Amino acid sequence: MKVKGRISSVNLFYVLAQTMIGVGLLALPHHTHHTAGSDGWISILFTGILIQLILLIIWFLCRKFPNLTLFDFSKVILGKMLGTVLNFLYVMYLLTIICYIFIIYTDTLKRWILPETPGWVLLLIFFILLIYGSICTIKNVISLFSFLFLLIPLLFLITFVVYDDPSMDIRYLFPIGHNGGWNILKGTEDAFVSFIGYETLLIYFAFMKRSKSISVLKGAFFTILFVTIFFMYIVIISTMMLSPEEMKITREPVLYILSAVEIRVLSRLDLIFLSFWGLVVFTTIISYSFSASIGISKLIRIKHKFAVMLSGTFALIVSIIFYYMEITLLEEWLKYFSLIFGVIIPIVLLLITIIFKREAASTYEEN
Amino acid sequence: MRKTELFLLICILLLLAGCWDERLLKNSRTVYLSGFDLNENGDYQITSIIRDMNISESSRGEISILNELVTGKGSSIKEASMTIDRSVPGNYDPAKGRALILGIDVAKGDIYNVLDAFYRDPRVDLNAKIAVTDNSANELIAHLSENEVEKGEYLYELIHSSEINSEIQNITLRSIRTYLFDEGKDFMLPYLSKDEAENEVIINGVALFHDHSFTGQLLTPAESTLLILFMEKKSKQVLLTEQLDKDANVSVSYNVKSVSRKLKLRKEEKVHADILLELDVEIVDYPPDQLNKQERISFLEIQISKILTEKADNLFKKLAANQSDILGLGREIIAFYPSIWEEIKGENYYEQILVNPKVKVNVRSGGIVL
């Protein structure tokens, strides 16, 4: 079944960037510092390069099946039975990520600005926004995303005021690489989770115009480049502002730094950053739920509208359970899940495609 | 469709956050200034000034401001503030304090014990200034003249203006944490004392810190200015005066326009740090004048350079005696000479560093006259 609606590579840039820049941003410097120390930004760079390679794999895979999403071509590659299982797993994976974002987002908001508000109220608001954002066609998603993309340069701008701080010290970045190559490589493991979102390409590539040409790749390539640079910038600026021991005990370095910045009329820049960041996280949630709903609607043959409702409800219930039971497993799981679903499965699918010469045409003979 | 949209909107309206987290100004007792003391049996004492604003309805909404001095004791900072909370009507809210004053006993101990509670609260104003006082903080706050309405702001501005004149290091509640957790850097805080005659509070120099506590050594404002020049952290204005000739009472005042520092580290028996400081200055007060002559200018340059180098020598001796690494040489070594750091690292690494300062002054201008 071919998907309807076409997007250009510029549109893909917006969608993918918004999907990738999300909930991990605030704690990213803290996480990379955990293993890679002051060389966290090198880990980010490595991860960025790694993801470019994975992008190539995904592209090779998707260009064999123009205008088909993962949920369609998995059946072509693996057969009906296994394909359905894989689709189900992917849907579950995407929904897990939504739950994870819900929980982290609630937790951060509660700790920083809304300590008295009950968690379920925040989750309910996210749920409503999720449904509102995802009941639409790809065209609507893109117009929303390209508008909200404005906020990302704004986040950039807000961080500029930090340079005024006299306690900033570039020496915290040195000596470069003294944590050892192994630790830096291990740091990519922590950084990797922040980059998740690129696997939605398995779905979005299907919407591309002229999906066989190289220009498709260009859009995704520049997105990952942009995201890598953005993350590196955030990590570098946080490393320069906080001493190494301090970074270990600061959960959201970005917010912490901004909360101390005062410019003439504003004394709490972190709150402004937090509200912009909230919208950026929202686009991530919408992107995931949109992709998950495509999967659900194909899996059990319901309309997109109902699929969105279903995925939203699932995410709401699971995240409320996890939130109130204080289960923190999700973060651990996600590390492995992202590796399995973002790296291993695409590679396996590509190998099968090449070895057994599966092609899109084989399905269309039936129709 | 329209109906469902409306329904959704109403749902969101009902759920608008903020109802839980609203904090009314009328209920909270905002603190603008807090002081911390440690008494003999290890209890902390907080002294705060709470400002009350009364908008009287009888006299056309005229606002009258009342300052209330409150104190509370407890074995931790949070317990002490709970004691205050019980004694005042409304919520005691220390988050917006503009200035924190550490009593001498607190400063000599681990000051992080006092500050920890602040970093755990997201609402705290991390831009607050911190100062050390020569006695108990309680006394100093009580002493602050009664007619000064905005006490917190008063102290904040007092400290801030010294910062602009590069007399003290620019330290806020946020940046002090960076220094506290940095193994290769120390800091200095403004040292406040009472001025009995003027019934005011003055900055009496800076207090040198080592690790987490006050060393007991003070620097005069002139010394700390020189130290800030060595750190290359000068603010807008740096005015210094040197006496050239004691008998004839000739002195020169100059404003430092730009600073450049060259730092060389070499490892012999100890680590030698050769620092060459080049200052571009503008003469702002020099009655003998004759600055149109080149030899006069070079004479001044040599004289001032000599005096400053001597002063710097004394200054670094003081720092070495107290092991206070304000310059951050430890961090410099960590960053650029990690092998040297491996040899000297530890609590008292500064013993291993010998600083050899040299100052070179270039007179660049003399105002609008020659």
From TrEMBL, chain A:
Coiled coil: none annotated. The chain crosses the membrane at residues 12-29, 41-61, 82-105, 117-135, 142-163, 191-208, 220-242, 271-294, 306-324, 336-356. The keyword Transmembrane applies. The keyword Transmembrane helix applies. Keywords: Germination, Membrane, Transmembrane, Transmembrane helix, Transport. It is a multi-pass membrane protein. It is found in: Membrane. One of its GO terms (biological process) is spore germination. GO terms for cellular component: membrane. InterPro entries: Spore_GerAB. It comes from the Bacteria. Gene3D superfamilies: Amino acid/polyamine transporter I (1.20.1740.10). Its main location: membrane. Belongs to the amino acid-polyamine-organocation (APC) superfamily. Spore germination protein (SGP) (TC 2.A.3.9) family. This is Spore germination protein (Amino acid permease). It comes from Gracilibacillus halotolerans.
TrEMBL record, chain B:
It comes from the Bacteria. Transmembrane segments: none annotated. It is found in: Membrane. Residues 204-367 form the Spore germination GerAC-like C-terminal domain. Gene3D superfamilies: Nutrient germinant receptor protein C, domain 3. Residues 21-193 form the Spore germination protein N-terminal domain. Its main location: membrane. GO terms for cellular component: membrane. InterPro entries: GerAC_N (IPR057336), Spore_GerAC-like (IPR008844), Spore_GerAC-like_C (IPR046953), Spore_GerAC_C_sf (IPR038501). Keywords: Germination, Lipoprotein, Membrane, Palmitate, Signal. It is a lipid-anchor. One of its GO terms (biological process) is spore germination. The keyword Cell membrane does not apply. Pfam families: Spore_GerAC (PF05504), Spore_GerAC_N (PF25198). Belongs to the GerABKC lipoprotein family. This is Ger(X)C family germination protein. It comes from Gracilibacillus halotolerans.
